[in-house]
Amino acid sequence: MSKVATAELQQSQLDAIAAQGAAIDVVPIVQGTPLPAPSRAIRCLGTGGTIRVLMASGEQRDSKIAADQVLPWSITKVITAGTTATQLEAWL
Q: pTM of this prediction?
């Protein structure tokens, strides 16, 4: 994927988050521990990698996240087994 396509995708994701309104809190994600509320988005502040999450729908998903990437996902937990990305935060 080109840097232009990546930048456009990142902007569309940020636009989707903005449409939800401002986050009321930002909390560090402790892998294996449920979040206090479903997230509006998650962000990788550390090293990108694989993430295994429990979606608000109850489904488990595996995906990739890059360093500094923001994903407009509603999750309830990051599962320790299978997650290699570091320093994740949740926007609530």
A: 0.77
Cβ atoms < 10 Å from Cβ of 32: 11
Q: What percent of the chain has pLDDT over 90?
A: 71
Determine the Cα–Cα distance for residues 42 and 40; give it in Å rounded to an integer. Answer: 7
Helix (H/G/I), strand (E/B), else coil: 5? helix
Kindly report the number of other CB atoms within 10 A of residue 69's CB atom: 16
Is residue 84 classed as helix, strand or coil in its secondary structure? coil
End-to-end CA distance of the chain: 29
Query: In the numeric block, which tokens belong to residue 33?
Result: 């521990």
pLDDT in tens, 56-80: 999 999 999 999 999 989 999 999 9
Q: Which helix (H) or strand (E) holds 43?
A: strand 41-44
